[in-house]
ATP-binding protein
Amino acid sequence: MTKPAVPKRHSLPTSPFKAPVALPPKHFEVGDRVTHDTFGLGRVIALEGGIAVLVDFGSAQERITVPYARMSKL
């Protein structure tokens, strides 16, 4: 038999086991200028219902999916 998973308690402010901080989701609009770690500078040209964005990087158009970890708005 296995033990059920129990969430860790983070009661002390000085604890080295602090609760992970959830980053707010990134939100993009058509026309936003963005930068991507691999593809460089681009402009959002289409949205796919919160699942992905289509970005024109000049030499190519790329579909970037959520959570957009390597892309940020300028």
